[in-house]
Amino acid sequence: xxxxxxxxxxxxxxxxxxxxxxxxxxxxxxxxxxxxxxxxxxxxxxxxxxxxxxxxxxxxxxxxxxxxxxxxxxxxxxxxxxxxxxxxxxxxxxxxxxxxxxxxxxxxxxxxxxxxxxxxxxxxxxxxxxxxxxxx
Length: 136
Ligand code: ATP
Known about the structure:
Layout: E1 5-10, E2 15-21, E3 23-28, E4 31-35, E5 42-46, E6 49-55, E7 58-72, E8 75-84, H1 91-106, H2 114-131
Parallel strand pairs: 1-8
Antiparallel strand pairs: 1-2, 3-4, 3-6, 5-7, 6-7, 7-8
Helix pairs in contact: 1-2
The structure holds adenosine-5'-triphosphate (ATP).
């Protein structure tokens, strides 16, 4: 059994990660999913959250939102709407997005699309969290 698998994380804009991993965590619709080499094949939805993977004793972190993961024994591919490495995250922008979403959620305005505002809040919180993991 191999002790690593190939990993690709792709968005409509670019190939964000092409690497080798020994283990990873994916934010699924029903919580986090842990993947090790030799995992049984599956296709699953990716929600909003943090992807982490280990390579040579180093843990890499990314903020992702919405997509699909294809898991094969020696290969994992993530197709996500957005995916950012810590160094690509604009913290000020994420803070503004978080404030906007929080204002909307507490406005009590009947026109507010709460599901949308909640999703925006989760994306912003994930980006802020991942940005602090830069260099760890
Ligand atoms: P905003 O309200 O600031 O646009 P958003 O959550 O609505 O945030 P998305 O629709 O998820 O933004 O993403 C649109 C594009 O902008 C994607 O390419 C995403 O990677 C990028 N992006 C969004 N927020 C940030 C950020 N804080 N830093 C870097 N890139 C970001």
